[in-house]
Write a structure and sequence with these properties.
With about 210 residues, the protein is an alpha+beta fold. It has 2 domains: about 45-115 and about 125-135, Arc Repressor Mutant, subunit A (Orthogonal Bundle); about 140-210, Orthogonal Bundle (Arc Repressor Mutant, subunit A). It has 6 helices and 8 strands, in the order αβαββαββαβααββ. The protein has helices at about 45-65, 70-75, 90-100, 140-155, 165-170, 180-195, and strands spanning about 70, 80-85, 90, 110-115, 130-135, 160, 200, 210. The chain has a 3-stranded antiparallel β-sheet. Strands 6-8-7 form a 3-stranded antiparallel β-sheet. α1 packs across α3 and α4 (about 140-155) packs across α6. The longest helix is centred in the first third of the chain and has 21 residues, at about 45-65. One of its GO terms (molecular function) is protein homodimerization activity.
């Protein structure tokens, strides 16, 4: 059972994994070694297949490396978009097109641009598309289900947990949401609240608490 005591102010704020993180054990799919894969093709059927393949690769890569957001500018120089063996890399324009596809219903809403405006998020094609984006290898509603299952499995219903305990605590160390960005956690908890499965306490940040029912 997790304790309900708050953490001292000296406790470090959880830091989301870097967009440049790369675990060499990740197994890239065969088409990653095919040079034309790094240029989106103009033929509609081929392009559609490419977009789906890139979406699958990005989700798998981010899941393997526990990456929750990427910056397009930074990611272009990582192994995800840059195959140094082939000396081929994805262009910024094509990378944007792939994320726009992922952020659309056609792409399964597997990405969301993080707007630089006052809005929390931008839809495909709106402001923020050249910067950072959430990569939803699990969408917020899927994370919500995972959190609810974890609470049930670990017998923590009715216990007030801090956000820090959820993403950095010993009990969650083996869970996929361990190390999750706090904003994504809050999005996911919001789904739990709407479902009537949880109640959130506090004013925000790592000391914010949540109780699951």
């Amino acid at each position: 059972m997790a304790t309900t005591s708050s953490h001292p102010s000296s406790t470090p704020t959880p830091t989301p994994p870097s967009t440049t993180a790369h675990n060499p054990s990740f197994a890239f799919p065969p088409h990653y070694s095919f040079p034309p894969f790094f240029t989106l093709q103009p033929v509609a059927s081929t392009r559609s297949s490419q977009l789906a393949s890139w979406s699958s690769l990005i989700q798998s890569y981010c899941r393997h490396n526990r990456i929750f957001t990427i910056s397009l500018i930074d990611a272009l120089n990582t192994p995800l978009f840059n195959n140094t063996t082939l000396r081929r890399s994805l262009s910024l324009r094509d990378a944007k097109a792939i994320l726009m596809y992922m952020a659309s219903p056609e792409g399964g809403n597997r990405a969301e641009f993080i707007s630089t405006s006052s809005k929390k998020g931008a839809k495909a094609g709106e402001e923020g598309e050249g910067g950072k984006a959430w990569i939803y290898w699990r969408r917020p509603e899927e994370w919500a289900a995972a959190l609810e299952e974890w609470v049930e499995r670990t017998g923590q219903k009715g216990t007030v947990l801090t956000l820090y305990e959820i993403v950095e605590g010993d009990v969650s160390r083996r869970e996929e949401f361990y190390g999750m960005d706090l904003e994504l956690l809050q999005k996911s908890l919001g789904v739990c609240v709407k479902r009537g499965k949880a109640q959130v306490f506090g004013s925000g940040g790592e000391g914010e608490g949540v109780k699951f029912f």
